[in-house]
Amino acid sequence: MSLQPASTEFAARAKSVIDEYKGLEGPLLPILHGLQEEFGYVPGESVPIIAETLNLSRAEVHGVITFYHDYRSHPAGRHALKVCRAEACQSMGGDAIAAQLIQALGIGFHETAADNSVTLEPVFCLGMCACAPAAMLDGEPIGRIDAEKIEEIVAEVRS
């Protein structure tokens, strides 16, 4: 995550989002959501602005961003594929499914394809344990993933 000084235009956009939520009780998460909605990710350049506004350390802000898997520190691909890595999915072959997806997409977790088609993200429980192994593509759940579904997922993100 880059913590370079922010450009004037960027700082104005970020400050506008921060100002919108800073008056709320517990404003950090709404601010992070707002920034991600505005920019598509939470830019590292926003960390010092958030920290100063909320009287937090940069480390505290960075820690929250990296703790929650839904916050991105860089732009995502056109599609977001979240693969469940929790125990129920692992017990139903999730490790093999994850390895097959990584191989088929040619990227690892927390990576975006060179053509910007997809970002692959691990998540720890989608709440679909009865349909394990599971994933979520652009917010749509996919359960009981097998080799055929992997082919469908790859075709969808590459189209």
TrEMBL record:
Keywords: 2Fe-2S, Iron, Iron-sulfur, Metal-binding. [2Fe-2S] cluster binds at C84, C89, C125, C129. NCBIfam families: PRK05988.1. CDD domains: TRX_Fd_NuoE_FDH_gamma. The keyword Iron applies. Belongs to the complex I 24 kDa subunit family. It comes from Pseudaminobacter salicylatoxidans. This is Formate dehydrogenase gamma subunit. It comes from the Bacteria. Its cofactor is [2Fe-2S] cluster. GO terms for molecular function: 2 iron, 2 sulfur cluster binding; metal ion binding; oxidoreductase activity. Binds 1 [2Fe-2S] cluster.
